[in-house]
Write a structure and sequence with these properties.
The complex is a heterodimer of chains A (138) and B (60). Chain A has 138 residues and is mainly alpha-helical. Chain A is 66% helix and 0% strand. Chain A starts with a helix and ends in a 5-residue tail after the last helix. By secondary structure, chain B is mainly alpha-helical. Chain B is built from two helices and no strands. In chain B, α1 packs antiparallel against α2. Classes of the chains: A mainly alpha (138), B mainly alpha (60). The interface between A and B is medium-sized, with 22 and 17 residues.
Amino acid sequence: MKLKGVVALVLGWAVPGLGHAVQKKYLRAALFFVSIFAMTGIGLAMGGKVYPMYLEPPRTAFQVVLNLFKKENPLTILAFFADLGNGLFYALSRLFAWGGGQLERATFEFGTAYIAGAGLLNFLVAIDAYDIGAGKKK
Amino acid sequence: MILESHLLSMAVYASFVALVLALVRRDGVKARLRYGLLLFAVMTVGALAFGWFMFLFIKK
């Protein structure tokens, strides 16, 4: 793995488009940032939920996994990994308690899908930044 | 409240996804435009078609 590619991957994951911006792909970076940031923002405004990982004090590695699955619908584990794709936003959402989810709103489901979709797209964007950094793509 | 219309929400969502995927998966302006429009059309028409399909199973 090339260091330049890995740096672009990490930066691109942390902030949408940053991995492209450091490689002077400014237009693509701006489009990625606006699209993904808008999706996350709209998702939050719609009352969408950012799914956390539930970690109780673990005794064994197996219990960590078991705890994750006990708390809510197991499908929320997949939503957690999708939300994690939002990088820095995910960390901020945990810090400032954004994205608690407003279940009573008609837009809750769509908002949650917007946030998860933004995370998944950002994974692809970060991998694309890695490919450029590694010289596999222009 | 923002985007209360499910149809509008779906169209906006599809446009963002189509834009990002077109930029990631294709090179060149023309190829990206064609791919992005195709993705947008598939997502919106597919969602509408599936919505009408589910209407067949509505409980009366």
